[in-house]
Amino acid sequence: MTDFSALFQPGNIGSLRLENRIVMPAMASQLPEPDGRLSERLLDYYRARAEGGVGLIIPAYAGVSADAPLMFNMALSDDSWVEDWSRLIDVIHSYGVKVGVQLMHVGMLYLFAGFVPQGITMKVPSEMPWLSDDIPYQVLNHEDIERYIDDFGQTSRRAKEAGADLIEIHSCHGSLAGMFMSPITNRRTDDYGGSAENRVRFPRRIVERIRKEVGSYLPILIRINGSDDLDGGITIEEAAQHAVMLESAGADAISVSRGIEFWATTTIPSYLYPNGSMLSLVDGIKKAVLVPVMAAGKITPELAQEVVADGRADFVALGRPLLADPELPNKLRQGRADEIRRCIYCMNCLSFEAAMGGGSCSVNPYLNLESQYPPKAASPVKEVMIVGGGLAGLQTALILVERGHHVTIYEKDAELGGQWNIARAVNDKEDFVNLLHFLKQSLDKYEVEIYMGVEVTKAKVIEAKPDAVVIATGAVPAVLDVPGFQRKNVVQALDVISGKIKPEGRIVVFGGRYTALETALMLAEQSKDVSVVTRAAFGLTLERVTFRTLLKRLIDLRVPMYPNTAVLEIVEKHVVMRYNGEVLELSADTVVLAVGMRSENRLAQELEGIVPEVYAVGDCVKPRNAASVAYQAAQVAAKI
Q: 619: domain range?
């Protein structure tokens, strides 16, 4: 059993004592009202994490200026917001958890959001050749700078009035303060540009202004980039200089991050990055300053323990792991690490879907639905047959047995997991197996009967006489309905990923979503000659950070990509396609199809009117990602 004792030693940031070293950092949730005001759903969301035993919660940022709003984000730009923040802080405090308020001017993060609100201009430190009139922007003059420094000061006063235990300044990723620090986005020639000292002047003066406003007792944490991860951007050597200057200005702690959110791919590291991908930067900052340092960026509980125990960081920010399991700190403290719903860094929580009430989680069916779930105990208890042992069937089964129903699972294959076993076979997705392990282990705990290698028919269901049947028979790969799609050189991407087929020669992958891009990347990393063709744009509806990471890696490997290209015919040694209005041939010894999935729901249709209750869940209803599966599983399980 891993020792997690280092994480549960008290620690100080300035005068503030935290009972443990685990921090929930500021993350957008879209749970406030559209105008940013406090909602009951947001209170429930933070209540769950506070009850879970975290040491410090920093809610999603407080906008400091009325001229830089974002929908679904609580501001603190005037006194009318104090009551909302006070209510939120009181709820978190009621569980003995400390609260920090992160202050931010959104700056150039509008580029990541993809739009600027009507009547608003994006504020920038300087002109940049690539800025366009598509997004209105304004270069700040000295008068503007003074006004925004005062905005930070006034907002810190309001945060203190609301009951905050700590002030955090957001000065990274693309926010206004962070853009002043970066030589890529700050090309000024006055005393706010040029040297590292000049570029840090704006955030340094913000620290000094806040200190003057809140006094010496309330600690100030500042979050900075250890690297922009872009040529010509902030390096770790310069970041260490920035940290020293900010410490001397009055910062009580430094939180280390990386990347410019609308440009680099490292700010929110996905499954494509190794665990602890920011720790080398944390090491550089830790050596330069005397104040505490906070680490973030894809840190597992085991790595968090190691980092704190070895003195590499004083605190660890576990963002997405606390979305996946709000009870993570309590489970670690109580020796129940094996019960944690572990984050798999799939990035589905960043894909906000209105139908699911915002972001959703592949691991935690109750994310952003904390007031509605878990569902109440079953009454009456029913015999439920689950047909299909993929994610949809397993997630639904677990919630049903947790409610008290008696559940039996039937899976036609020799192992549980279904399409998830193929998904986790993709390069860099090794941790995806954690979700399957959790579901299997949890079902074992409830002694759920599971029958493998059994294909369920209508007759078998009638014989079993269940009170309810849940169909989770999944989906099968779709085909490209063009002449030649049945040729022997046409194969499915899922067979390539699983290793059943090893394509040779010149390879063309059809498709523009994750499976196509991941398959092409896997082949390119094997030094295969591969191209990618899609009939629309690449990455439609995909989560942008992961898509950008995949796209960049394909570009770095010089993989040819043909968007908005129609495939007209597949022949023996090439495909015929319409590209940019012209009919062309693209050499292809092997054609790999990654054009989506087709639902397999025949049994669900056959059982209508035969069984008292029939439900369908997962891909057999409509192909979907794992987070949508988890959300739907929770909905279905609550009805039975």
A: 383-476+600-639
